[in-house]
Amino acid sequence: MSEKHRKEGSIWTRWDLHLHTPGTKLSSGFGEPTDAVWSAYLEALEQSDVQVFGITDYFSYDNYFLLVEKYHAAYPDGTKVFFPNVEFRLTETISKTGKNVHTHVIFDNDLSKCPKEKLEVLFSVLKTHKTSRTGATVRCSELTEQDYVSATVSIVTLAEALRETFGDDQPYIIVTAANNDGLKSVDTKSPRSRSISDELDKASHAFFGSAKNVEWFLSKERYEGGAVSKPKPVFSGSDVHSPDDLKRLSGDEPNFEPTWIKADPTFSGLRQTLFEPAGRIYIGERPPVLVRQDREGTRFIAELRVNQKQGYDERNGKWFKNVVIPFNPELTAIVGNKGSGKSAIADILGLLGESRQDTHFSFLTDDPRNRKFRRPGYAENFEATVQWQSGGAPTKKVLSDSVDRSKPEYVKYLPQNYFESLTNEIEVKALRKEIEEVVFSHVDEADRMGTSNFDELQDLKTAQSKSDISAFKTRLRELNIEIVSLEKQADPAFKKALEQQLNAKNEERRVLNASRPQPVAEPPSESEEQQKVASQIAETSALLSDLSERGKISVERLSNLKETLHKLTSLKESVLSLGDRVRVEKEALKVKCDELGLNVEEIVTHQTDLSTVNEKIGTVSAEIASLEIATVTEFSDDIDLKKIASVPDLRGAYTFVASKIQTLRETLSAPQRRYQSFLQANKEIDEKERDILGDEEDPKPGTIRALEKRIAHIDTALPAQLTQKREERKKIVKSVFESKKKVRQFYEALKASVEERLAIVSSSEFAVTIDASFVPSHSLEEDFLGHINQKVRGEFRGSEDGSAKFQSMAADVAWDDFDSVFAFAENLIQEIRSAPVEPQVKDIKELYDYLFSFEYFDARYELRLGNKNLNQLSPGEKGLLLLVFYLHLDKEKTPLIIDQPEDNLDNESIFLVLASCIREAKKARQVILVTHNPNLAIGADAEQILYVTLKKHANYEFSYETGAIENPRTNEVIVRILEGSRPAFVQRRLAYQIK
């Protein structure tokens, strides 16, 4: 490929399109154009950094052909490129002083497109304002040396002559001066001058000016009356008129800034600037990409080499043999038919760049279902080398090698398979993770506080909020136990069960009283001995009653003491646990305090005193022991039964006294026995009735009075108590929400710079925004229904109906609003309560813990396209947003390699959004794009087109062609390969000189 058509495509070089030669018609400072003068002139051009020159003369092109002849004679191997530039003084004036505007016509230097004969025709038809002695209009070809000073042409006449000469072909561009003898000298107070200036602007393709003029001529609001103006390029020229002016070629002279053009050094390359005026021209010391190449050479791929290993016999195909591909530092578009090896180049670069997406490679894959080039006998026979722009040691690998994860990623690679896995992943977790890391890249270094990624910063900034949430949830779980208990009591079935128990107890009492024996009269006085026995029985029975009552009291006392001991032990354990937690937390705080030069001992003091607790534990334990230990081994009449206190002793005494009474009864007469039995039975029934009825002040559970109190409590106090507990729960849940909001605020605080960047690419057609929002878990429905038995009657019965019911309820939840989320949780419970709860819900307490813990939504970055969030987007729309993030927001500077991202995207999205984003991305990093869609390659103004083929019929021989878009051969290849999308390409054919 010739020097004019470089393999690496369009690259930045110095151009100077406005300099005069020795012998120029006007204002020549060279003196007599001797051979010595020409020699010095040509040497200055050859030694300069300028690669392309516009050789200028007034109303003439003769000196251009003379220079070309002399240059090639002096430098047969010279590579400088020259274009003829004819300068005209226009008839139109727009300044207060009446100075004429100057315009230039730069012609194609390809004589097959712009032959000298055509130029002669042009000058023979182009009329000046001057007339001859006969009154005939003087044409440019008729001008004499004296005429050059005064001759002018009209811009209209010039344009007509160009059209008449060249027809639809346009081997020229019209470049009008902006400063000095140019449009910027317009008399702004004169409507006529402003109007003429606008017309001159419209007739011009470009302008000679300075960096200060660029913004004005790129704007779309230059014209009077509000008409839209087309962005046009500005070139800075040296306007050399003398040997001393040649110093301007250095680019260091004030007011003569160097012009850099990114294009092939051809007229097609020059014309390319008319259609990409912002991206193809740079006026200044050096274009930023060249500066970055010098300073960050390790982040630019300069060249890829792939070759067969020595000894390979090509039995499995030629594949890559002596492949050497240079890469453009900006955008390279790899194109080709399906199966042509496009993804192969991307995968090889990903392998050499240690990409972490190697599991998603489509060519260098070892997936058992699709091994492709990793089959035995293939990849191990080829080796690849990447040379970096830095010129350091190249990276080499055999294609069967693996990615070395101990090394950093030298490229960012988005294989097609990875792209699809992200965009189709149901919960888009991986996609959100990518978004978070891109956001983190925009966080100012000072605000990162020493963290290296988003998760670390989040943990640092939200630790307290998460700790608070954990504490609130602990209290919530405890409260839910109470609420579940109260709700069970509030259930009508529960009250009905109590009423049935009460009825049963009343019936038990009735039956008991009905069992009382018939009254037995006290027998007449009997013998003194019988009276004595009866008296003993009465006394002993009273003692027995006392023992029974004391026994009940002791048992109850023992139960209370054991409960107290349990509480005291639990309290002690809690205090000890608190001390352990404080010590652990204090150790963590000590690290932070040490960092800040603080003494944690002066900040945190903690002291516990368990002496009173231990003392009470000892007292209670001793009393329990005294009530549990039997002190009497054998009972007799000598023992004072009123002094015994332990439960075993009281039970033993009761047995002893009951036995004694039985013995005394056996000595009574029959009438006396009947009477004593009657008294004993009544006494036992009275005691039993008291047990059934319960104590009036503090009845035991299950007694009539206890049941009556519980029923009365349900009717009177329970509703208020339940309401109070639910309100308490709502307050705790609100606290959980507020703590989660603090986490969300962390997300909000980081997104400002990202919003600014998104605003650049956002439009009415592509309204992309980023929110820090609460986002529900994708498993919310599954998790909720997991608590429900969908086989029984209820609003969520049946998998389809239950799912539809839940989705309809969840659809309108505003997750950033507490009232909305809380109402959602309560409404779910209300729907459940429309049928019996117990058979529907597997564990109501666990359901409460789930619904009111708010664990099913979290703060996330929510990308929105229009009104749709990530979960609502199609795979193609997700892919588009992902690409926008990588291309427009990712601040990494490593080469970005993307393999066919457009498969799920419509053409309009590609052209309107991606093309714009790629243009922005290539300003900051090298982009290598595998694509079969012309809207990406052309719309993004790819600097290099790499067209690859894999000739299967020729034993799988890989080959390629590469060059700039403006290269006619590249044009031809693009149209042929991208035939399926030809209309999108052809509508820009004029911009790219496509036939």
UniProtKB/TrEMBL annotation:
Domain ATPase AAA-type core: 866-936
The organism's place on the tree of life at top rank: Bacteria
Disordered: annotated segments: 505-534
Molecular-function annotations in GO: ATP binding; ATP hydrolysis activity
Location of the Rad50/SbcC-type AAA domain: 318-525
Coiled coil: none
GO biological process: DNA synthesis involved in DNA repair; double-strand break repair
PANTHER family registered for this protein in UniProt: ATP-DEPENDENT ENDONUCLEASE, OLD FAMILY-RELATED, DNA REPLICATION AND REPAIR PROTEIN RECF
Name of protein: SMC domain protein
Natural source organism: Parvibaculum lavamentivorans (strain DS-1 / DSM 13023 / NCIMB 13966)
